[in-house]
Design brief:
The complex is a heterodimer of chains A (about 120) and B (about 140). Chain A is an alpha/beta fold and about 120 residues long. Chain A has one domain: HprK N-terminal domain-like (Udp-n-acetylmuramoylalanyl-d-glutamate--2,6- Diaminopimelate Ligase, Chain: A, domain 1). Chain A has 5 helices and 5 strands, in the order H-E-E-H-E-H-E-H-E-H. Chain A has a 5-stranded mixed β-sheet with strand order 1-5-4-3-2. The mean pLDDT of chain A is about 95. By secondary structure, chain B is α+β, with helices and mostly antiparallel strands. A 5-stranded antiparallel β-sheet of chain B has the order 1-2-3-5-4, with helices on one face. The longest helix of chain B has 21 residues. Classes of the chains: A alpha/beta (about 120), B alpha+beta (about 140). Chains A and B meet through helix 2 and helix 3 of A and helix 1, helix 2 and helix 5 of B. Bound molecules: adenosine-5'-triphosphate and magnesium ion. The site of magnesium ion has 4 residues of chain B, from helix 2. Chain A: This is DRTGG domain-containing protein. Chain A: Homohexamer. Chain A: It comes from Plebeiibacterium marinum. Chain B: InterPro entries: HATPase_C_sf (IPR036890), HATPase_dom (IPR003594). Chain B: Pfam families: HATPase_c_2.
C-alpha cells in the first residue's frame, strides 16, 4: 500500500510533501510524545499525531517515516510544511479523532496484509 | 575523523539539525543502516536535551575503524541526581515544552537502549556531559 492509496481510501487532505505520495507504507504508529515516537516508530511507517510544529518533521526525517497524519482537523505550521516539501515526506490531515483514524488505518493495513498472505 | 557541532539552548527550531548532519555523514561513510538508526535515536535525544534543559553545548563525533564515539558537553543547570534522571518518566520539562510533546522522560532511557556504552556526568550549575560509544 502506498501513501496515495491511504489518501484515497481514508479521504485525507494532502497539506504538503506531495513528492512522497508514492512512499510505500509498512505500518503505522500513533503517539503525541516525541521521544516515544523517536524510540518506537519504524522506517516506512505512517505516524498519526496531533502535534503540528516543525519538530515533527525533524523526527519524521530522521526516522524516515512514510507520512504523517494529523488528526482532528489540525493543520501543520508553516515551518513543518516547508521541511515536508524539502524532504518529500507528506503531511496529511483528517477530521477523525486519533482513536478512529488509528482504527481505520489498522483495518486497512491488515486487510491488505491478508490479501497478500503476509500473516 | 572528528566532527564538531554547536547546539543552542532553548532554540527548538534547530533541534535535530546536528543529528541530521551526523546521519548524513554516517550514511556517506557506509556505516550499516542498523547502526545509523540506533545512533540517530540516541543523538537526537541528547541534542534535544541540550535544547530543552541547557544553555548551550557542543557535540563532537569521533569515528574510527571500530567505534563511533559521541560526546555532548553542555553549559547548563546540570543534573543533581543522574540515577533519577535516567528513570523512564522522570522529567523536569516546563509545561511549554510538554505541550510540544517533549518531556515524557523517555529521552535518556532511549539513549541507553540505543548505544553500547553510555556515561553521563554532571556538575550542578555548571553543565552536563553525555558520552556514548557504539562499536562497529
Ligand atoms: N543536558 C541536560 N542538562 C540538564 N538536565 C538534563 C539534561 N538532560 C537531561 N536532563 C534532566 O533529566 C531529565 C530526564 O531527561 P530525559 O531526556 O529522559 O527526559 P525529558 O527530556 O524530560 O523528556 P523527553 O526526552 O521524553 O522529551 C530531564 O527532564 C532533565 O531534568
Ligand atoms: Mg529528553
Amino acid at each position: 500500500m502506498k501513501v496515495c492509496d491511504l489518501v484515497e481510501k481514508l479521504n485525507l487532505t494532502v497539506f504538503c510533501g506531495e513528492q512522497g505520495i508514492n512512499n510505500e507504507v509498512e505500518g503505522a504508529y500513533t503517539s503525541d510524545l516525541l521521544s516515544d515516537v523517536m524510540g518506537n516508530v519504524d522506517e516506512g511507517q505512517v505516524w498519526i499525531t496531533l502535534q503540528t510544529h516543525r519538530n515533527i518533521m525533524a523526527i519524521a526525517s530522521l526516522k524516515e517515516v512514510a507520512a504523517i497524519i494529523l488528526v482532528k482537523g489540525y493543520k501543520p505550521e508553516q515551518a513543518a510544511i516547508d521541511q515536508s516539501n524539502e524532504e518529500g515526506i507528506p503531511i496529511l490531515g483528517t477530521d477523525m479523532e486519533t482513536f478512529e483514524a488509528s482504527g481505520v488505518l489498522f483495518t486497512l493495513l491488515n486487510e491488505e496484509k491478508g490479501k497478500y498472505g503476509a500473516f | 575523523m572528528e566532527f564538531v557541532y554547536e547546539v543552542e539552548g532553548g532554540d527548538f527550531t534547530k533541534a535535530g539539525n546536528a543529528s541530521s548532519a551526523v546521519k548524513k555523514t554516517l550514511k556517506q561513510l557506509n556505516v550499516s543502516p542498523k547502526i545509523v538508526k540506533r545512533i540517530v535515536v540516541a543523538l537526537y535525544e541528547a541534542e534535544v536535551n541540550i535544547v530543552a534543559h541547557a544553555y548551550k553545548g557542543t557535540i563532537s563525533v569521533n569515528i574510527n575503524q571500530d567505534q563511533i564515539h559521541i560526546v555532548l558537553d553542555d553549559v547548563g543547570p546540570g543534573i543533581p541526581d543522574i540515577d533519577l534522571a535516567m528513570q523512564e518518566g522522570y522529567s523536569t520539562a516546563s509545561s511549554k515544552v510538554r505541550e510540544m510533546g517533549f518531556g515524557a522522560g523517555m529521552g535518556l532511557p532511549n539513549i541507553k537502549k540505543n548505544v553500547d556504552d553510555l556515561k553521563v556526568s554532571s556538575e550542578v550549575d555548571k553543565g552536563t556531559k553525555v558520552e556514548m560509544k557504539t562499536y562497529l
